[in-house]
Amino acid sequence: MTILAITGGTGFVGSRLIDLALAAGHEVRALTRRPQPARAGVMWIEGALDTPAALDRLVTEADTVIHVAGVVNAPDRAGFAAGNIAGTQAVVDAAERADARRFVHVSSLAAREPGLSIYGWSKDEAERVVAKSSLDWAMVRPPAIYGPGDMEMRDLFRMARMGIALLPPAGRVSVIEVGDVAALLLALAEAGPSHEIYEPDDGQPGGWSYAELARAVGVAVGHKVLPVALPKAILSLAAHVDQIFRGKAAKLTADRVAISAIRTGLPPPPSAPTRRFGCRRCRRTRACRNGGMVSRERLVIGVL
Q: What gap in Å lies between CA 168 and CA 226, rounded to an integer?
């Protein structure tokens, strides 16, 4: 039985990861800001990324540390830096003090182009923290994640139920289901190559256009959807209005407008010894459950 130390365990991805970890027979230690109901196989550690003592308790005797926690929305650069850069540094420091065998870091596809957004910059800096550590690490750069419990794409589903989808200008996006991300994280925690970055997606060739994604969401909710592309100026105004009405809970921010208004997809990453992109289509298959991560050229992980 392996002991997994997980940050972000009460969140969207982390909670699904805990479910899979327990089902696989692992023991889990999970960081939480607030008291949680007792759960067999889970030791809740009260604390946060800025409480070193809690992080030390979290990772003590852990075989693998999986750092899921992070900031996806913040009012300014300082908020992203505190949550994603300083937070990652604190977890890495704790893992090194505990001599953890393995470290799995959840980054973002946005880290590939840090100049496009503050969020992408902060995730790229967090990757650099992990890469320069002494840990045996692997990193995962998920695209947009959807599934039960998702709050980030909820507005798109709500619009689809009304038969309309207000979208960014022409562009493409890749997505992945939350269970697939969790399965990949667990596989990498159990085994896999060191010093590699994985970019999983749902296997859709070339990703989805915004209109294609909106229509697919329409199928999911049982409504025909009319996609309406909005110019960047309108999106920026909408972000300002969202900020006024929802404050810190706003989903459309200026930072997200900066990413979504880009007309072309992100270019392929440069090749580097520690940045081989192995998993383009992660699925809950026997290969994934067995930790069968392979290079892109030898990808054998199938599609359900």
A: 14
Report the C-alpha gap between 104 and 190 in whole angstroms.
10
Mean pLDDT of each 10-residue bin along the chain, 304 residues long? 93 97 97 96 97 98 97 90 98 97 96 92 98 97 92 86 85 92 95 88 91 93 89 71 67 65 44 35 32 26 22
Query: What is the CA angle 88-30-250, rounded to 5?
Result: 60
Q: Tell me which residue of 207, 194, 201, 179 sits closest to 301, measured CA to CA.
A: 201
**Most distant pair of Cα atoms in the chain: their distance:** 54
* Rounded distance between C-alpha atoms, residue 84 and residue 226, angstroms: 36
pTM of this structure? 0.81
Query: Is 181:214 a contact under the CB 8 Å cutoff?
Result: no
Residues 32, 69: contact at Cβ < 8 Å? no
pLDDT digits (tens, 9 = 90+) for 36-89: 999 999 999 999 999 999 999 999 999 999 999 999 988 889 999 999 999 999
Q: Rounded to the nearest 5°, which phi and psi values hold at 25?
A: 90, 15
pLDDT score for 240: 65
- Distance from C-alpha of 115 to C-alpha of 120, rounded to nearest angstrom: 7
